[in-house]
Amino acid sequence: MQKNEISQEFLTIQSKVEARLTVKRSRFIASAAPVEHPEMAKNFIQEISSQYADATHNCFAYKLGVGDQAIFKISDAGEPSGTAGRPILQAIESKNLTNIAVVVTRYFGGIKLGIGGLIQAYSAAAMAVLNRAKIVKYYPKTLLKLIYPYTCTNAVNTAINRFKAAIINSCYDETVQMEIEIKRQDRESIIETLNDLSGGKVRVLY
Fold first, then answer.
1. Looking at the domain that runs over 140-204, which CATH code has it been given?
2. Can you give the residue ranges of every domain in the chain?
3. What is the per-residue pLDDT for 69?
């Protein structure tokens, strides 16, 4: 599921992050990353599992999408059923996050934690890494293609700055052709602003 397939805003994390904690001599390393589709989540899980290939367990959960379109996957990776993957997913959901993968690595310290202890430990590790992450809001985006004379450059730049649009590409010939990315919710407003600032000289192709 690609980001641009999601039709509503959501919360995710900005970048990869890691947190560590020790519970009764067992070492837990929690790793989290933003992901856009299942393959990206699987690659991150494989990366962490390979990095800590000597660990006792590499448990994980990932979630993609929102509402009825949300998908998730969890793994206890050899821990008793329900003691690792589910608590990790619950930590993700408690923060209202999606498009995220979390792997919690465990190095067994010689003391058994029991079912309740494992659930608490994996939950704490997942929460620790999520608390360290920078949470960002993603807004659905759309593209606009503009054609305008050079005399409208200042007007276009003003609109781009006002709506925090991103220039995707541009072509300068007899006229300027520019493709910009904006928040979908701002589409009508930026078109109106472009018309007002340019006196209707900026054409929007799509």
1. 3.30.70.240
2. 3-137, 140-204
3. 87
Token pair in block for residue 116: 């309740």
**pTM, entire model:** 0.76
The CATH homologous superfamily for domain 3-137 is Impact, N-terminal domain (3.30.230.30)
Using alpha carbons only, give the angle 40, 44, 45 rounded to the nearest 5 degrees: 115
